[in-house]
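Much of what follows relies on a compact textual record of a protein's fold. An example makes this concrete, so a full record is given next.
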Amino acid sequence: MGKTLKNLDLGRKSIIIGLGKTGLSVAKYFSAKGLPFDLMDTRSSPPMIEEFKTHFPDIKIEVGKLKESSLLGAKELIVSPGLSIKTPEIQRAKDFGIPVRGDIDIFSKAVKAPIIGVTGSNGKSTVVALLASILTLAGIVLLRPFMANNSIARIIIVLSIAGSILFLPSIGMYYGFHNWTSSLTNGVVDAKFIAIINTALESPLGQVSMIPLLAWIAKNAPSHLKATFFAVFASFTNLALSASALLTKYLNQIFVVTREVKDKVSGEIQTTADYSELGILLIVVTILTLVLPILFVFIINNSKYKTSE
């Protein structure tokens, strides 16, 4: 027989090993693509097994010690990151030519858009923040014609509308929008997918929104007072942040939202979760995000401080 089984037709199903969040995401992806698969887990009672049975009632699930006969008959093994690929049964299958892959490998090959992967045990958040700043600069370059050809008032209004629109997915998910999109896409466009896309679009917006005001100061402030103008702008920015924090505090007092808090020692629930008012809170924040900047522009344009820019 030799050492490899890769040329023998012992079954063309992929086996997803690990009935956790990673395994569930891979299983949903395979199901959406119509790819045959089985499920395995080294634990005898995986915590999420009932969720897997609900999503995939017709899929074979094996739990407990990995069966080498099943592994050697697979098309490939999709191993969750919580399980070592040096596990003897997995290593044996790998030695016999069965491909062993992970979720990142699958999705990096399936995705059509450019992606940036950040890995490692340290520095990931720093690198992500740096990449966000770089992408923001790219966005500024792309938006340069728009900012150059429109007044500051119009730019503020457009950015306010854009910011409000980016709140809509959060409101929609509170009322179950992600369940609808997940059912239409067989679990691909779920809450996590929507949140990632929304965050990616929302993060650079706050930085881009400061550019028109900085450009106005650079262009119109007297040469000997530019530094003073920039300092005043920075002070107003800090004031706006403080006002935002204060407004958030008062909104949280009006619309009470609590998360579950457990005692670290006993595990006893000290505060119960209550998200009943989260929906109306998100709606109010969206309205304020839209109305306050537009109201500010209206007041300035109808005062002696109005400018042609």
Notes: Confidence is low (pLDDT under 50) at residues 1-11. The chain has 13 helices and seven strands. The chain has two domains: 14-110, 124-301. Residues 68 and 92 are 8 Å apart (CA to CA).
